[in-house]
Amino acid sequence: MSEKDVVVIGGGPGGYVAAIHAAHLGAQVALIEKDRLGGTCLNWGCIPTKALVRSVEVLLEAKRANEFGIEIGSIKADLPRIMARKRGIVDRLVGGVEQLMKANKISVHRGTGRILSPRLVRVDDTEIATRRIIIATGSESAPLPIEGANLPGVLATDDILQLEELPESLVVIGGSHVGAEFASIFSALGTKTTIVKRRPLLLEPVDEEIGRRFAQGLSKQGIRVIIGAAVKAIKKEGALLKVVWDTPEGEQGVEGQAVLMATGRRPYSEGLGLSELGVKMERGAIEVNERLETAVEGVYAIGDVLGKHMLAHVASYEGEIAAENAMGGGRQADYRAVPTCVFTFPVVAGVGMTEKEAKEGDIPHKVSKFPFLACGRAVAMDETAGIVKMICHAESGKVLGLHVMGPHADDLIAEGALAVQLGATARDIAHTIHAHPTLPEAVHEAALGQLEGSIHFGRA
Question: What is the value of pTM for the model shown?
Answer without folding.
Answer: 0.94
